[in-house]
Amino acid sequence: MTEVRRERADAARNRRAILEAGERLLAEYPPEQVSMERIAAAAGVGKGTVFHRFGSRAGLMRELMVERAHALREAVTDGPPPLGPGAAPRDRLLAFLDAVVDVVGRNKGLLAALGETVTASCDAPDDAREQHSVYGFWHGHLRALIAEERPDLDAELLAHILLSALQNGPVVRLLGQGEAQRLGASLRLLATGALEA
Amino acid sequence: MTEVRRERADAARNRRAILEAGERLLAEYPPEQVSMERIAAAAGVGKGTVFHRFGSRAGLMRELMVERAHALREAVTDGPPPLGPGAAPRDRLLAFLDAVVDVVGRNKGLLAALGETVTASCDAPDDAREQHSVYGFWHGHLRALIAEERPDLDAELLAHILLSALQNGPVVRLLGQGEAQRLGASLRLLATGALEA
DNA sequence: GGTTAAACTGGACCGGCGGTCCAATTGGAC
DNA sequence: GTCCAATTGGACCGCCGGTCCAGTTTAACC
């Protein structure tokens, strides 16, 4: 039984080119102006190639988001406290909120595009798939920390509410103007207020 | 100087038909499946008529939302306490949160469609226009109540965050399953926690 | 009741989107 | 070098939001 048929060299090269082109375009234009065709052109490949590798627009956005959130994910699961394991749940939660705000702040357009995806996918899919997405990971982490600190609260829903701020248009606009610190402060205020209620 | 040229009878009739068709379709299908052409067909008019009266998809959605939110708006400005003027800001705020959750819960798809509009319009427009929209009114009311109770907090941003829960996909899904009470409870928890911090 | 200007109507039409398809090309195991 | 499968890219599809305009309807005025 040989290896599972590696990805061809040119395919890997084009995959990188597509991801980088998408990243660059989303950093410069609002998501509704970044069509799949434009990404393909900017990457120097055909449209069919993009869909062959990523399946759909939502698939590409998901991969982009996974890339951007990778460092945070590792810091949470394996890194040092207060973000990683070891600190008190309350401290981990506050540190995580700041870190998430930071990631979103440095990728304004991307989260918006992902938000549309999340919203649209809420009509049919099984909840299991959500667990593998970036949103699912963020939500699961928040929920676990809240539940650990205050098992009597509705951690599931509170986690959704805290994250939903990051999909709100006016809030994201503020983030784009460098107000990340301000958003972090208000989110921490809400979180601590709920935990101490 | 005579009256300002009333709307013609057939135009008024078609306007009603379009609004009712849109309302009906949005109640039954997710917003991305409700195209302007479908609304026109369901209302028994041509597509051009719809665009003539409402300008754009966003315009239609805005009008629909204004209709749905009309009762709440009046209750807030002229109705009895605790929703209307007279009660303590804190009580008005909690009552308002419940009322907003109720409106959104009975109009699942509509807010989602409006959310896309709000998000998209965040790239160019002056903030003044936002004041006239339903979102603008809700946000302004919340902000004023928070500021009145706790002038030291970031009322502007906190109001946005509280409202953003209503645009979050998973949260709206819960609302669609009759969990309005659960959402109201968590929002009240967050609000009271912040006010007492 | 007839005249008339303006408001309204609706369907053909437009560019662009996400997504599909498949003939031609390319890579790499042997 | 051979050969098969993975990959490629652009033509193509149906649909969308939005525009246009020739024809129709309304209602104000005489």
UniProtKB/TrEMBL annotation, chains A, B:
Residues covered by the HTH tetR-type domain: 12-72
KW Transmembrane (keyword) present: no
DNA-binding region: 35-54
SUPFAM superfamilies with a match to the protein in the record: Homeodomain-like, Tetracyclin repressor-like, C-terminal domain
Record's keyword terms, sorted: DNA-binding
InterPro entries noted in UniProt: Homeodomain-like_sf (IPR009057), HTH-type_TetR-like_transc_reg (IPR050109), HTH_TetR (IPR001647), Tet_transcr_reg_TetR-rel_C_sf (IPR036271)
Top-rank lineage group of the source organism: Bacteria
Pfam family, one: TetR_N
Protein name: TetR/AcrR family transcriptional regulator
Organism: Streptomyces ramulosus
